[in-house]
Design brief:
about 30% helix, alpha+beta, about 110 residues, 4 helices, four-stranded antiparallel sheet, 4 strands
Length: about 110
Amino acid sequence: MIVIAGWIELDPNKRDQGLIDAKPYIDAALEEPGCRAYTWTADVQVPNRIWVYELWDDEDSLAFHLAEAPYKDMGAHLGTCGTTGSEISKFRVDLEEPVYDQTGTPRADFFTA
């Protein structure tokens, strides 16, 4: 599994409408094979920032996405919104488990491995 997470900063006067106008690209990405999540949200504390969260089954799914129109069109769209910076990373997930154990206690350690 691969997690994409990070932020993009836009012209604060264009951020909200930019997110609304990005819906077709987000919807298209969600239909791609191997896409489990694809969410872009406005930061309520930083008026020019959006947060990116994506979840992909594997490298092949992510590679497919990066080569397709929704990804390229989203990049072009963001360019019209006054992009001023970004920091987006990918993370390979080798172990996944719940935060809460069987008793409902939140745990930082990995307890099922």
